[in-house]
Amino acid sequence: NVRFIGTIVEGKPIEYIRLNSHHTLNISTGDIIEITKSEWRSYLVDVVRNAVEATRRPKLGVIAMDDEKSLFAYILGYGIDFGNEIYSGLSKRLSNKDFQEALKKYFESVEGMITNMDVDTIIIAGPGFTKDDFKKYMDDTGFTKRVSKKLLYFNISNVERSGVYELIKSEDVAKVLHGEAIRKEFMLMEGFLKGLASGASKYGTDNVHGAVSDYEAKTVLVNDSKLSDVVVQKILGTAEKNNVEVVVFNSDDEVGRQLHSFKDIACI
């Protein structure tokens, strides 16, 4: 829940409204509210828009696999989108030759699904050795090097939906999700640090304001803890006017803490 505290300035019917008195609103997930502001800065709109889009965009792909089947799923910002299942067709009644052929076809089918999954990182998890055999197959065929995705392997107790829910509650996946969220920020911070040596990067309100005003900045990096600062708001307003990209960091994240050591605002 989010709690809003403020002063009542108007309302209807007027006889039931205590103007200028303090009031608290408790907003829960699923509640619909309307917010009116005299002016919406584009960088603030971007913060809201990015938060909404993040709930819809797949963050990770998941393949829960054992020797009987593979279950595919996407971890979204708001939950899990379960996909198809692929059955292996493996049986102890098969001859060794037929078993190996069936296993190869099974792995090829999973490989095809990995290729088609629209995410950068895929977690392959399972209760037994099948995922390990699949990893060896991927390495031996060179697919691991060819695929433009990061593949991670974890253990889970089963390959049903409950196994996927078990997976996303794990500390390992929490770390992966956090890492995906701040990848862009790390890249921007790396670019900023590289630019310090050549003078292409600036930090601190005075230097950033000068660079933005003189059209010498392409991107401004600012911690969310500084968005209410009047001087920072003026800089960001100039950045918006001059078509300079503004990226807001979470001040509690590692990159945000690093930016804090550069006075919470910088530009590239």
Automatic annotation (TrEMBL):
Gene Ontology terms: cellular component: cytoplasm
Chain ranges of the eRF1 domain:
61-177
Q: Which InterPro entries match?
A: eFR1_2_sf, eRF1_2, Pelota/DOM34_N, Ribosomal_eL30-like_sf, TF_pelota
Signal peptide span: none
Set out the biological process GO terms recorded for this chain's protein. nonfunctional rRNA decay; nuclear-transcribed mRNA catabolic process, no-go decay; nuclear-transcribed mRNA catabolic process, non-stop decay; ribosome disassembly; RNA surveillance
What protein is this chain from? Translation factor pelota
Q: Which organism is it from?
A: mine drainage metagenome
